[in-house]
């Protein structure tokens, strides 16, 4: 980023030997225990005096509590400042030498006598091969004024380099060199009709010619200062590679400027029109010109270099925290992709610094909006709050009392520095300003979050990546669009303004933010004309998911004829007059919901583009709407999924609940019926419905009866009593409801103190099956009592502890987790598809496994993206949520940081966030307790042999419910992180152009061996046909369900094979299974088990070592595992017909 964009400062060169210097501000910095202004001091801040000043700004930026939410945040912030404070560049000598050489060359360039425009151009081209970089429109060749060159009055290094505040960017170091053009070159009316800019362009061309013809050799090119088509500058890069460093390259930007006062301020105020109509320029000056605020501000900017130097110096003198606040602002802007370049939003380091300095003005007398006593962090937050709370398009800001008029049809934000007559925000478009406000609103709400440490989200996270920021994009050819409108005064073409207005009006509340990214102008050679901007316009949308798929758009009533006519003109043939059920008769537009290939959001944009820009543009627009969701969703569901596909199952669950409660004859009254399954919390990998998959996927349900003293005091007896209850419940259900089939099943028969039985209830009318288990709170009491018995054996203690953990997980944590997730999925429509997309990714890489990454853990990872979304708002599409989740996993240091999810956070919308609409369910004490428990686990288990990932939530403070007993192990957690980093990097590189298969295809060559499964026996989702004949159940047969299928309800042969493989060889091999495709089991040999000391009953197939292995000497005391024998046993004995093929990828046998 150009140093000119960070701050406009200058220092003079008074001779070839004079060192570049700058006047240093105060060196003193606040300590880490900075004192904050007292409340009495805050009260002494007076309200804004001028009428047109924002009276409520003082309340917005007033100090309102502790400076930092935590000591950790304080330490991190000061660490950031220490690292980010600019330091003298190690290349200063080389840069200084280049600057002195350029200064000497420019001073020796001879004057050029005044020549007509055509002649001046011809001479430069003929003698020097330099084309004058005139802005568009070019000057007329028969213009009656002449161009000339005179030696500059001053040559100064300006910007951050002169202040020794240069930052080393990836593109190298950029140093600004201001060349002040003499006032004698200009005529009184040169501010009109581009004449100043034509003279300026000729001046920089003459400098380019002089440097080009000098004995010193440089790489020269023209480029636009901050993308402003009116302000070409000369880029000078030294030739040679004498500096051996990745950041060694630097270049000098030579910027023509003028002294303040060359043109009267009152002639170039924002309301003045300096581009006269053609008739007026020919002598009819009485014709009123259209205001040209961008043109005027561009001209005014060239005269304010010294003035803004003084402003920044005064602010640094007034507030010792000013410089550090600029560092924080610079960091935040960079992370959010904002810069002084027009295509970077037009708000960069210089604008931040100048705005903050202006808001500090008058601090000593009490009239400033920011107090000079504020710390750097308070100044930073005050700036964000000012940006977030003020709409400077609707209500422009004036720094002083002023009667300056603004253009009536104003489209740009105004922060008017009245003392200098300059709008600091003149380079911002409507859309870039609204995006800046949106980001500031997010940051303000984020920094108000007292529950979690948001330092990384505020300052360390790159927030402007396309797929992290937007929910959808569309791309249009810029050259085609640009031809539809002239640039005129605006820095954005009229076509872009028209495009934005059209999209905003057409999409209404379907979108929260629309941003238009136009291609950046590139540099060009001295001997050629500036290249036309080409490439693609990318329009990014932050969508309101609750409205994006709305079928109807409503207009005015027929009585409002003016608005109704405008509505019909805008929508054309789509507009219809309709009468609704509430007797309203209004204009409306109805969209096609039956079109499964194109979501409504896409239909609207295509139609509007075709109507207002032409059919070819409407047909050739490229949409990227929730692209990754196509992995699990149809295109029509993008941006629209409200978990509708799960409603039939949930309706069936409600039927089950009412059916059970209506039963008569149960031994006890039913107290609760809890859902406890991914299918019942909108989170299953597969969508439930009447399909060939249903009978093999029962949904878990927990049934609790009213308390009774008649339950036995023996754990085994309780399990047998449960069986009796389930048998009775099944009999009652089948007797009362003909469409119900109930069957009791047994599980964990080898663990008599754990739950032994379940009841499968199948509704033949829908095909849905529910697996009911009985929850009895007395079991926990008995298990805890058993654990405290004196003299209990270690084996019994471990058995009871495992039974208690399973009990809590199945009967307490899972129902609570399910209910919390149900609530969140109904609040956030994109949460359900985002979870399913994440599970598809984990499954495709064979990590979705109760022994590795459980369903609940994946759900917690995705939920965190919605309840703690910073630095973004709540995602509105599954793809965006998935991309952010991967980004967080890729950066999660799970060794030192727990995962904490607050299910109770309610963030309704971006607007609510801006207003601080956050309701916290967890308290700070809950977070402290969870972190204390996490730290205790790390002390107990420093090697991470038992708890690798610690995942707690507002409904489960234990943190180990889903991850205890090394679920996952360290190697699996490390693989998760590595895969997430690779995927996140790919998403950043490709953005919305990413090919989904690149993310979801596993790399099987990384495994030691692959077991290819026979699809005939491996697929757990069998078809509804039975070779054995008819079903014994008539109602089952009518629905197409076979008795054979019913017998295999919940039967998963591959999972059983996997369980047996892990029981037999779990210490030797890590087995992975793709639950999505179900076609392979992959294996990794455990390297720590390669060689073992020989002993009797070793418990594995072994063989003598043929040579030294892993540094161990060959001898009779060691053996190595016999991999060939183990693989032969797996394929021949355990797998049998289920394994179609064995593939060994690595020669490790």
How is this structure best described in words?
By secondary structure, the protein is of the alpha+beta class. It folds into five domains: 3-15 and 62-460, Poly(a)-polymerase, middle domain (Orthogonal Bundle), CATH 1.10.1410.10; 466-551 and 591-625, Alpha-Beta Plaits; 643-788, Beta Polymerase, domain 2 (2-Layer Sandwich); 829-1001, Orthogonal Bundle (Poly(a)-polymerase, middle domain), CATH 1.10.1410; 1004-1144, Alpha-Beta Plaits (2-Layer Sandwich). It contains 37 helices and 32 strands. It has a six-stranded mixed beta sheet. Strands 19-20-23-22-21 form a five-stranded mixed beta sheet, with helices on both faces. A four-stranded antiparallel beta sheet has the order 13-14-12-18. β16 (575-579) and β17 form a beta hairpin. α10 packs across α12, α12 packs across α13 and α26 crosses α27 (855-867). The two termini are 55 Å apart. Mean pLDDT is 82; it is low at 1-65, 242-247, 690-694, 907-920 and 1021-1038. This is U3 small nucleolar RNA-associated protein 22. One of its GO terms (biological process) is tRNA export from nucleus. Keywords: Nucleus, Ribonucleoprotein, Ribosome biogenesis, RNA-binding, rRNA processing. Residues 1-56 are annotated as: Disordered. Residues 1-37 have a biased composition (Basic and acidic residues).
Can you tag this structure with a few keywords?
1149 residues; alpha+beta; Poly(a)-polymerase, middle domain; Alpha-Beta Plaits; Beta Polymerase, domain 2; 5 domains; six-stranded mixed sheet; five-stranded mixed sheet; 32 strands; 38% helix; disordered N terminus; RNA binding
């Amino acid at each position: 980023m150009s140093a000119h964009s960070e701050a406009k400062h200058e220092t003079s060169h008074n001779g070839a030997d004079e060192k570049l210097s700058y006047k240093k501000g105060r060196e003193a910095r606040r300590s880490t225990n900075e004192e904050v202004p007292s409340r009495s001091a805050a009260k002494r801040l007076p309200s804004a005096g001028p009428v047109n000043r924002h009276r409520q700004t003082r309340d917005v930026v007033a100090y309102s509590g502790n400076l930092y939410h935590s000591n950790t945040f304080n330490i991190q912030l000061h660490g950031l400042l220490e690292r980010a404070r600019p330091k003298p560049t190690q290349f200063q000598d080389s840069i200084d030498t280049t600057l002195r050489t350029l200064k000497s060359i420019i001073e020796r360039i001879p004057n050029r006598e005044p020549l007509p425009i055509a002649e001046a151009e011809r001479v430069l081209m003929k003698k020097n091969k330099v084309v004058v970089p005139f802005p568009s429109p070019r000057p007329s060749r028969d213009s009656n004024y002449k161009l000339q060159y005179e030696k500059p009055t001053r040559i100064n290094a300006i910007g951050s380099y002169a202040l020794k505040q240069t930052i080393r960017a990836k593109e190298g170091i950029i140093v600004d060199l201001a060349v002040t053009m003499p006032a004698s070159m200009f005529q009184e009316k040169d501010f009109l009709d581009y004449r100043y800019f034509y003279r300026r362009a000729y001046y920089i061309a003459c400098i380019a010619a002089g440097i080009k013809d000098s004995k010193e050799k440089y790489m020269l090119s023209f480029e636009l200062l901050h993308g402003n088509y009116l302000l070409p500058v000369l880029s000078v890069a030294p030739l040679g590679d004498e500096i051996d460093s990745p950041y060694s390259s630097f270049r000098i930007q030579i910027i023509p400027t003028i002294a303040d006062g060359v043109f009267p301020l009152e002639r170039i105020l924002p309301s003045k029109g300096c581009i006269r109509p053609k008739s007026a320029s020919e002598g009819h000056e009485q014709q009123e010109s259209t205001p040209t605020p961008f043109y005027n501000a561009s001209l005014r900017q060239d005269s304010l270099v010294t003035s803004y130097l003084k402003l920044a110096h005064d602010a640094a003198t007034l507030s010792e925290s000013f410089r550090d606040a600029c560092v924080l602002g610079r960091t935040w802007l960079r992370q959010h992709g904002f810069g002084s370049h027009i295509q970077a939003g037009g708000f960069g380091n210089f604008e931040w610094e100048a705005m903050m300095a202006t808001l500090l003005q008058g601090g000593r007398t009490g009239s400033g909006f920011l107090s000079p006593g504020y710390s750097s962090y308070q100044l930073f937050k005050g700036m964000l709050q000012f940006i977030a709370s003020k709409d400077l398009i609707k209500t422009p800001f004036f720094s002083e009392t002023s009667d300056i008029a603004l253009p009536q049809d104003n489209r740009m934000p105004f922060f008017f520095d009245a003392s200098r007559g300059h709008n600091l925000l003149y380079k911002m478009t409507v859309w870039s300003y609204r995006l800046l406000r949106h980001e500031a609103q997010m940051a303000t709400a984020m920094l108000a979050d007292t529950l979690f440490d948001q330092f990384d989200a505020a300052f360390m996270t790159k927030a402007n990546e396309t797929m992290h920021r937007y929910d959808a994009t569309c791309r249009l050819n810029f050259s085609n669009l640009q031809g539809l409108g002239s640039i005129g005064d605006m820095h954005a073409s009229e076509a872009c303004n028209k495009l934005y207005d059209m999209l905003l009006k057409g999409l209404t509340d379907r979108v929260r933010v629309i941003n238009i990214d136009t291609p950046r102008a590139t540099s060009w050679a001295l001997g050629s004309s500036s290249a036309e901007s080409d490439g693609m316009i990318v329009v990014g949308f932050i969508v309101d998911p609750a409205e994006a798929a709305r079928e109807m758009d409503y207009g005015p009533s027929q009585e409002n004829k003016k608005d109704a006519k405008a509505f019909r003109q805008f929508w054309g043939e789509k507009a219809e007059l309709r009468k609704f059920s509430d007797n309203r008769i209004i204009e409306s537009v109805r969209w096609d919901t039956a079109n499964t290939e194109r979501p409504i959001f896409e239909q609207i944009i295509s139609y509007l583009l075709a109507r207002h820009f032409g059919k070819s543009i409407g047909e050739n627009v490229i949409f990227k709407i929730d692209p990754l969701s196509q992995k699990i969703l149809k295109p029509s569901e993008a941006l629209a999924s409200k978990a509708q596909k799960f409603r039939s199952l949930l309706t069936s669950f409600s039927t089950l609940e009412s059916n059970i409660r209506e039963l008569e004859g149960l031994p006890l009254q039913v107290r609760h019926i809890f859902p406890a399954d991914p299918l019942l919390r909108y989170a299953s990998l597969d969508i439930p419905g009447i399909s060939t998959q249903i009978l093999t996927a029962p949904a878990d349900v927990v049934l609790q009866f009213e308390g009774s003293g008649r339950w036995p005091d023996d754990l085994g007896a309780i399990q047998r009593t449960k069986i009796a209850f389930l048998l009775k419940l099944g009999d009652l259900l089948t007797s009362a409801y003909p469409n119900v089939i109930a069957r009791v099943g047994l599980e964990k028969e080898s663990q008599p103190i754990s739950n032994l039985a379940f009841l499968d209830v199948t509704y033949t009318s829908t095909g849905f099956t529910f697996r009911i288990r009985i929850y009895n709170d007395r079991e926990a009491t008995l298990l805890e009592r058993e654990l405290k018995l004196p003299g209990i054996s270690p084996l019994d203690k471990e058995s009871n502890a495992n039974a208690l953990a399973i009990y809590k997980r199945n009967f307490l944590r899972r129902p609570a987790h399910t209910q919390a997730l149900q609530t969140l999925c109904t609040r956030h429509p994109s949460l359900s598809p985002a979870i399913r997309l994440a599970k598809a990714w984990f499954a495709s890489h064979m990590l979705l496994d109760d022994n590795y990454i459980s369903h609940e853990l994946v759900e917690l990872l995705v939920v965190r993206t919605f309840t703690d979304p910073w630095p973004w708002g709540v995602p509105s599409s599954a793809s965006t949520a998935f991309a952010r989740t991967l980004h967080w996993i890729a950066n999660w240091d799970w060794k030192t940081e727990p995962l904490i999810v607050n299910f109770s956070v309610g963030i309704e919308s971006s607007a609510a966030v801006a207003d601080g609409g956050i309701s916290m369910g967890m308290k700070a004490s809950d977070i402290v307790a969870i972190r204390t428990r996490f730290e205790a686990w790390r002390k107990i288990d420093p090697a991470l042999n038992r708890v690798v990932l610690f995942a707690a939530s507002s409904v489960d403070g234990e943190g180990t419910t889903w991850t205890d007993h090394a679920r996952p192990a360290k190697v699996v957690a490390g693989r998760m992180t590595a895969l997430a980093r690779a995927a996140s990097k790919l998403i950043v590189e490709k953005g919305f152009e990413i090919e989904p298969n690149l993310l979801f295809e596993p790399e099987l060559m990384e495994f030691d061996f692959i077991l290819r499964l026979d699809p005939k026996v491996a697929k757990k989702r069998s078809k509804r046909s039975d070779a054995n004949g008819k079903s014994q159940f008539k109602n089952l047969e009518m629905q197409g369900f076979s008795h054979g299928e019913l017998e295999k309800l919940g039967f998963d042969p591959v999972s059983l094979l996997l369980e047996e493989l892990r029981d037999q060889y779990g210490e030797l091999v890590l087995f992975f299974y793709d639950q999505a495709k179900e076609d392979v089991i992959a294996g990794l040999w455990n390297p720590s088990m390669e060689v073992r000391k020989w002993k009797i009953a070793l418990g594995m197939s072994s063989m003598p070592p043929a040579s030294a292995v892993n540094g161990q000497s060959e001898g009779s005391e060691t053996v190595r595992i016999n991999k060939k024998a183990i693989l032969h046993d797996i394929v021949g004995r355990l797998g049998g017909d289920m394994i179609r093929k064995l593939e060994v990828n690595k020669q490790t046998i």
